[in-house]
């Protein structure tokens, strides 16, 4: 199927957002710094948490049902995918002032989002069965749309050189490879039941996908989409994330309240980390996971209890739980 490309020029909008709540307090952590940003999909909010103190330092109104987040290469801005609407909204990371709203068109329902090192934004538009490339998002914000031809185009990753993107397509049970620089037709393969989580190894040599309906993770060749190996993991692996060092991939197993750690070289399960008990799992509703830049901690969004669990990777211990706002889901971090 041939990709569709529709260039548009959009003008950023400057909008001020007032805080919705007071700062909350959580135990401080020694040797930890930076800030964590949380999309509150139930409360329609964007939150900022100071990782040194554990305090939520800002909470502002966002768009309807925000899901995934991405920070700019210079850490000055955070982009929010407005899953309940049609735009990608951009906020300053210091005070969470909204500075731009980039419209993607009717029924867009943007979900997955990447802010690439080249300064451009990439987002899925699930309602349009496509992905968008937003060139110069803080300037001209030119948008280019690429059809995947697949239902439920949900999450994505982008190659380090920004030549290709890969999506998971929930309803079509596929993974799709999109050529961003040509009109070449996208390539798709079926992978498990309801593939959703996706992560690209730091060296770009392995695509990792988790299928929540079949309780499996897959090692896939990014070039030809050949499945190299399938790995049985915990129940309902909603997300998968590769450690920055590239040595492990971890799935977020919602139904177990746990993380499955996979050796990236062998494709074997190395261990399981319990984030909550099986009895608590239904209440906590563990979803998105995010590595700290140094690979020492994993942040786990627990949507049902409005908490973000901070997990020490080496010991598997939950260090503390942070307040991320109402229905915290998407996560992004700056040092």
Automatic annotation (TrEMBL):
This is YncE family protein. Gene3D superfamilies: YVTN repeat-like/Quinoprotein amine dehydrogenase (2.130.10.10). Pfam families: Lactonase (PF10282). Keywords: Signal. Residues 1-21 form the signal peptide. PANTHER family: DIHYDRO-HEME D1 DEHYDROGENASE, PROTEIN NIRF. The keyword NAD does not apply. It comes from Erythrobacter mangrovi. InterPro entries: Haem_d1_sf (IPR011048), Host-pathogen_enzymatic-act (IPR051200), Lactonase_7-beta_prop (IPR019405), WD40/YVTN_repeat-like_dom_sf (IPR015943).
